[in-house]
Design goal:
single chain, 31% helix, 14 helices, four-stranded antiparallel sheet, alpha+beta
Length: 458
């Protein structure tokens, strides 16, 4: 957005950016006065629908900090008492909250207190305040101006010389109630913790499908990452609150007439925001847009309950399986999912049909292996196509005569294929030793009477 700029509602400035504030544009002045103070200022109409959507997205993100969130018009209240030990104390939790909000492109004023209204007032006029007990809360609120109360109550207190909340509370309660009214007195009691102040909890949606309207159309996929990061952060918080993980998510890029679906697959069940963002970045950096994008929508396609697991002794230690999952996700996003696969056993006696290529991302169910007693030796390296071997003096030959060490093992299968795949196979397999001490897996065709090399033992 160009700078300086400001948000206007009903002809009055609601808020301006730093450049507008430096020029003297303050909340409450008229649009004409703002243009007089800053001739190049950009005035934008307030969009409450977008503000509500942004607050819902932030509420979902806050699920990574606490499952108890309350949403007001422009305030997010987090109940953190049960989460302090998890994050290492109140100061670290406040820092994590501010860093998370900043990473999504927002600026926030933060304060901590034992009452919701007290925390809200301190965040507005004393950002950074950290009241750990009732004494800290009382001292912090006492210094705040009476302008926090309704206008008629603040004016009445000012006539009696009370400028701060502390000075107002030193008045007798009965006289104070007559001067400012019962409603304003109850506000003070709720802020100081003398009256209960329950707040409704934000209800995390059953299904995650969060939209985001872009300020302007974007024609470069890589430029979408900053906006999409807000959605991935909200998804991570939503998953944390639901104690669930995702194996697949879909980012929908809405154009003017249609939309593009970008599928994000993960090698294992995950709720980690870093993994969501890494896969998202890899996919967007390699995506060519067919048309400019006007809006985004992130959907959690495959959500499952996240099983409990033992954490390592050191917080920065990472399990081998998790590291492998992250590697597979990045390779799939960079090279294409069709180029990254895992091998699973398949119930077929023919060596070239005994395995199947499967997607590495997500759950898979390999075929049941062929039932047999002790399986015979199999080579680690199987050739794509068997190599024909000459026969010299009745013995197979490859850079010299081969010595047969084990065999034959008869494999006769595949007559039902009718020419598909490997077709009908009738072979006798042997383990052979070459002159260079290499162990080979060779076979002789029962019908054509030819020798072939099929694989190498390690």
């Amino acid at each position: 957005m160009p700078s300086p700029s400001a948000i206007v509602e009903r002809g009055r400035v609601v808020i301006g950016d730093e450049a507008a504030q430096d020029a003297g544009v303050t909340p409450g002045i008229g649009a004409a006065a703002a243009r007089a103070l800053s001739p190049g200022i950009l005035l934008l109409a307030r969009d409450r629908a977008r503000e509500d959507a942004a607050m819902r997205a932030l509420a979902c993100w806050a699920g990574c900090l606490t499952p108890r969130v309350s949403v007001l018009a422009d305030t997010l209240l987090l109940e953190l008492g049960a989460c302090l030990r998890l994050f290492g104390g109140l100061e670290k939790l406040q820092a994590a909250a501010l860093a998370g909000v900043a990473a999504q492109g927002f600026r926030a004023a933060c304060a901590a207190a034992s009452t919701p209204l007290g925390a809200e007032w301190l965040a507005r006029l004393s950002p950074g305040a950290c009241c750990k007990d009732a004494g800290d809360l009382r001292r912090g609120l006492d210094d705040l101006p009476v302008s926090l109360l309704p206008a008629d109550a603040a004016a009445a207190l000012a006539r009696f010389g009370a400028r701060t909340l502390g000075e107002a509370r030193r008045l007798p309660s009965a006289a104070l109630a007559r001067r400012i009214g019962e409603a304003s007195l109850r506000l003070l009691e709720r802020a100081y913790g003398e009256r209960p102040d329950p707040r409704p909890d934000f209800v995390f949606p059953e299904r995650f499908a969060l939209p985001l309207q872009l300020p302007s159309a974007v024609d470069n996929a890589a430029a979408l990452l900053f906006a999409a990061r807000r959605l991935s952060a909200a998804l991570a918080g939503w998953l944390a609150a639901r104690q669930a993980g995702v194996r697949e998510a879909v980012l929908c890029l809405r154009h003017r007439r249609d939309e593009t679906r970008v599928v994000l697959r993960f090698a294992g069940l995950t709720a980690e925001g870093g993994r969501l963002e890494r896969v998202l970045r890899e996919r967007l950096e390699r995506l060519t847009l067919a048309a400019p994008v006007e809006a985004l929508r992130l959907e959690a396609a495959r959500v499952e309950a996240l099983p409990g697991r033992s954490r390592p002794l050191l917080d920065d230690a990472q399990s081998g399986q998790e590291a492998l999952d992250i590697l597979l996700e990045r390779l799939g996003a960079r090279l294409g999912e069709e180029r990254v696969y895992r091998v699973a056993a398949h119930a077929d006696y023919r060596p070239e049909c005994a395995t199947r290529r499967l997607r590495p991302l997500g759950k898979y169910a390999p075929d049941a292996p062929c039932r047999s007693s002790i399986p015979p030796p199999r080579p680690l390296w199987l050739l794509d196509a068997p190599e024909a071997l000459p026969e010299v003096d009745g013995r197979p030959y490859r850079r010299g005569p081969l010595t047969l060490l084990a065999g034959p093992e008869r494999i006769e299968s595949g007559w039902w294929d009718g020419g598909e795949q490997a077709g009908d196979a009738r072979r006798d397999y042997f383990v052979a030793l070459a002159k260079d001490a290499a162990w080979l897996w060779i076979y002789r065709e029962c019908q054509a009477r030819g020798w072939f090399l099929h694989g190498f033992f390690s």
